[in-house]
Automatic annotation (TrEMBL):
Domain of life of the source: Bacteria
Descriptive protein name: S41 family peptidase
CDD domains for this protein: cpPDZ_CPP-like, Peptidase_S41_CPP
Signal peptide bounds: 1-25
Family, per entry: Belongs to the peptidase S41A family.
Record domain PDZ: where: 94-162
Keyword Hydrolase in record: yes
UniProt keyword terms in alphabetical order: Hydrolase, Protease, Serine protease, Signal
Pfam families per record: CtpB_N-like (PF22694), PDZ_2 (PF13180), Peptidase_S41 (PF03572)
InterPro entries: ClpP/crotonase-like_dom_sf, CtpA/B_N, PDZ, PDZ_sf, Peptidase_S41A, Tail-specific_protease
C-alpha cells in the first residue's frame, strides 16, 4: 500500500508537470505530441527513484519536497529562462513586474551551479557596490550556492530592509574572490530617466521595461520637448535586462509610425504565434493610449540608441525594430542575445506557477536575436582602450536555445575583439582604484560618441571589428 501511495504521488507530480507544459496549448489544435500517452516506462523509473530516496537516503525527506524538486528540475532542464515558481518566487515575480521589491537589485541566472549576474539594476545596493555583469556568486553569507535552485539563492539574498548580506564572488580578471557586503533596501526601480544634453538634444535612459514604462517615457519626452524643442535624441538601453514585451512595444511605438510591426513571435501553438504592432491595444494594459499626448515630432527626429552586452530581451526588441526601419542608428557593442518569450502559467492561482519559454521572437525584417544579439551600426567600446565589463551573453548559457536563422550562433567573444584589453578594475598612477564612470557622465565614451553622431561629427569606432557587422569600419555618419 505504501508503494502504491508513493507511485501515486510521483504520477501526480509527473502529470502536473506535463499538464503545465500543455496548459499554454489547452485551447489550441492538438498535435501528435500533446495527444500522446504518458511515457509509462519513464514514469516507472521515476517512481523507482522516488522509492529509493524514501527508503535509503541518509535523512528522511518529505514527499512534497521531492515532488517540488522533481518539477523544478524538469522545468529548469529546458533552457536557462524556464523555471518553476513556488509561492515565494511567484509572489516576488509579481511584485518585481510592478517595479518595487526588497533586496539587492541584481538580475541573476543560474550557471553551472553558481548564481551568475546578468546585470545590476542602476541605483541599487548591488550597483553602488560595484557588482558587475558576469560575476559568479558562489557564497551568500555562510551558505554555498552549489546545490541551490535559483529561487533558493534569491531568497537568501532578499530580506528585511537595512539588514546586511555578504556575497562572495568569482570575477573575471581577479585572481582572488571578491567579497562584497551589501545592505538590503526596498528596490524602487525608476525605469525611465532623462536630461537635456544641450538645447535641442535630449537624453533618455530606460533601465527596465515595466508596467508604467511607456507612460513614464511619454512624460519624460514631453518634459524635454517643453524645455527645448528636440532636434535629436539619445536613447540609452545599456545594462537593461528587459522586462514586459508590451512595454517594449510601447517604447518602439513612441518613435515608429502607427500600426508598424514592432516584433513577432513564433511558437508551437497558435497563441504563441503573434504580431505586435505600434497600436494601443498592443502596448496599453488599460483602455487609454499612453502615447496620445506625445508630440508627433518624435516620429521623425534623429535618434541614436546605445547598447552593450547587458542590453537584453525587451531592449533588443526595441533596438531591432528601430534598426530595421532605419529609424535610429545603433552605437555601442553587441547586445546580450535573448530572443525568447516566456509566459507565466499559474499552477495554483495566485500561489505558484511556471515561467516557461513559449516562443522565439523576430524583428520586423525576420531577424532572430536568439544567441546572437543585435550588432550596432557603430561599434564603440566603453573607453578608448576597450570595454571593461566581462559581459556574459545568451550564447554562454548552458542549454541556451539555438538561433533559427543560423546553423550556429556566434560565441559572445567572437569575432569582435578590442584593440587592447583593460583590467576589470582600473587604477590610477598611484595604484588607487579609479571610480567607475557614470553613464552619460564624464568619461562615458559611448555617450560622447552618440552625441557626435547626432551632430554629424566623426565617431571614434573600434579599430578592429567584425567585418560582417552592420557599419563595420565606419568612422563617421
Amino acid at each position: 500500500m505504501s508503494r502504491l501511495k508513493q507511485v501515486g504521488l510521483v504520477l501526480s507530480g509527473v502529470c502536473l508537470g506535463i499538464l503545465v507544459s500543455l496548459h499554454y496549448a489547452a485551447n489550441a489544435n492538438k498535435d501528435s505530441v500533446t495527444t500522446g500517452q504518458l511515457p509509462v516506462e519513464e514514469v516507472r523509473n521515476l517512481a523507482d527513484v522516488f522509492n529509493a530516496v524514501k527508503q535509503f537516503y541518509v535523512e528522511p525527506v518529505e514527499d512534497k519536497k521531492l515532488i517540488n524538486d522533481a518539477i523544478t528540475g524538469m522545468v529548469a532542464g529546458l533552457d536557462p529562462h524556464s523555471t518553476y515558481l513556488d509561492e515565494d518566487a511567484y509572489k516576488d515575480l509579481q511584485v518585481s513586474i510592478k517595479g518595487e521589491f526588497g533586496g539587492l537589485g541584481i538580475e541573476v541566472s543560474m550557471e553551472d551551479g553558481l548564481v551568475k549576474v546578468v546585470s545590476p539594476i542602476e541605483d541599487t545596493p548591488a550597483f553602488r557596490a560595484g557588482v558587475k555583469s558576469g560575476d559568479l556568486i558562489f557564497k551568500i553569507d555562510e551558505t554555498s550556492v552549489k546545490g541551490l535552485t535559483i529561487s533558493e539563492a534569491v531568497k537568501l539574498m532578499r530580506g528585511a530592509p537595512k539588514t546586511s548580506v555578504v556575497l562572495n564572488i568569482f570575477r573575471k580578471g581577479e585572481s582572488r574572490p571578491v567579497v562584497v557586503k551589501l545592505v538590503r533596501e526596498i528596490i524602487k526601480v525608476r525605469s525611465v530617466k532623462s536630461k537635456m544634453i544641450e538645447p535641442g538634444l535630449g537624453y533618455v535612459r530606460i533601465t527596465q521595461f515595466q508596467e508604467q514604462t511607456t507612460a513614464d517615457l511619454a512624460r519624460h519626452l514631453e518634459q524635454l520637448n517643453k524645455e527645448s524643442p528636440l532636434k535629436g535624441l539619445v536613447l540609452d538601453l545599456r545594462n537593461n535586462p528587459g522586462g514586459l514585451i508590451d512595454a517594449a512595444v510601447g517604447v518602439s511605438a513612441a518613435f515608429l509610425p502607427q500600426k508598424s510591426l514592432v516584433v513577432y513571435s513564433e511558437g508551437r501553438t497558435p497563441d504563441a504565434k503573434r504580431k505586435y504592432l505600434a497600436i494601443p491595444d498592443d502596448y496599453s494594459r488599460d483602455a487609454g493610449d499612453q502615447l496620445k499626448s506625445l508630440p508627433k515630432n518624435f516620429k521623425s527626429i534623429p535618434m541614436v540608441v546605445i547598447l552593450n552586452g547587458g542590453s537584453a530581451s525587451a531592449s533588443e526588441i526595441v533596438a531591432g525594430a528601430l534598426q530595421d526601419y532605419k529609424r535610429a542608428k545603433l552605437l555601442g557593442i553587441r547586445s546580450f542575445g535573448k530572443g525568447s518569450v516566456q509566459s507565466i502559467i499559474p499552477i495554483v492561482p495566485g500561489k505558484s506557477g511556471v515561467k516557461i519559454t513559449v516562443a522565439k521572437y523576430f524583428t520586423p525584417n525576420g531577424r532572430s536575436i536568439q544567441a546572437k544579439g543585435i550588432d550596432p551600426d557603430y561599434v564603440v567600446d566603453e573607453t578608448a582602450n576597450g570595454s571593461s565589463e566581462p559581459f556574459m551573453r545568451e550564447a554562454d548559457l548552458t542549454r541556451h536555445l539555438s538561433n533559427p536563422n543560423e546553423q550556429s550562433a556566434p560565441a559572445a567573444s567572437a569575432p569582435v575583439a578590442a584593440p587592447k584589453a583593460i583590467k576589470a578594475r582600473q587604477v590610477d598612477d598611484d595604484g588607487n582604484e579609479m571610480p567607475r564612470f557614470e553613464l552619460a557622465g564624464k568619461g562615458d565614451l559611448q555617450y560622447e560618441q552618440a552625441i557626435n553622431l547626432l551632430k554629424g561629427l566623426p565617431v571614434a569606432v573600434r579599430k578592429v571589428v567584425d567585418q560582417s557587422a552592420p557599419g563595420a569600419g565606419a568612422s563617421e555618419p
